[in-house]
């Protein structure tokens, strides 16, 4: 075996896996996570970080469409596998790794991924119109007027030459008040370009770059007033429906202004097609599962792995005493962590429900077998209120600290779609 083949096998010995668990596939996800922990295969954090995409169960039509978009963003070498039963987990993972090695060794140049416009319901002509930030007919690059090549803002203004003599500059009627002195203050180069200042610093030079619009189906940034009275960029963003530690099928749409989320709205994909209730699970196992997913989001993978091992041990019923001891150890470590208290304390506090840290410590009590008071499920409107004004990282922690399911989506906006 040559050196390149050895390096290829070494690089793909532990492929990164991104899981998509369809509704009612919770126990199947537990089986896959247990096998991944046993093999030491890491979890992917994004499509760009993914080698294997594993879809568990049968996703609904909206979630399936979202998975297709996600799959189109995974770079080669890649493989997608579908798992329907726990007995298929090992075979699917072995097959996926073998396919990755073959694809990497074949030196494939062809990219069989669908074009993003086709997945977004657009044709090639529509996508071509959006490329290059083109905001009008004939506006190539940053051309903001018919015939204004480069940054030419008037007939004959070649190369923006404002030197003595002003060669080629038209000083005819209509250019009243044109000041060509030092700094070029108040320089008006024709109808439609009022107030364009080409002096030092280019103050007031707005070429429509912040006027919104779309590029390849993605909304561009616009501007809006901030809480401090400043004018900041406003970018439309979406979190979900597939993220590590994120409730699969949940979509959060919001405006990102500066570094905080505003106007947040949440909805479930395939809400009408989902089961009316989730399968019954023991309180300790469910609490350990939620704790493990939160710890993955919080960046504590070793504690998350121990929580999953304790969860799996309790689910198998074979070594429940050992699993209970492991659960008590990991929950004690998490609840006493000063780093976690400093990171999550005070985030997502509304009313008397506590903050992220309070909810995590409640899960620790449940997982260790202590009795805790039941709390009502939070609606999606309530979740939106929690993430309002939060940074994206804080919003991820807030959602990960909640026990969300489609059953609790009592007031989800009906107009949100992937």
Key terms:
alpha/beta; four-stranded antiparallel beta sheet; 13 helices; 9 strands; globular
Give an overview in words.
It is a single chain. α7 (283-298) packs antiparallel against α8. The strands form 3 sheets. The chain has a 4-stranded antiparallel sheet with strand order 6-7-8-9, with helices on one face. Strands 1-2-3 form a 3-stranded parallel sheet, covered by helices on one side. The protein is of the alpha/beta class and 418 residues long. A hairpin with a 2-residue loop joins β8 and β9 (260-268). The chain has helices at 3-11, 26-39, 61-72, 89-105, 116-119, 124-130, 283-298, 301-316, 320-335, 338-344, 356-367, 380-387, 392-400, and strands at 17-21, 52-56, 79-83, 214-215, 218-219, 222-225, 231-239, 250-257, 260-268. It has 13 helices and 9 strands. The longest helix has 17 residues, at 89-105.
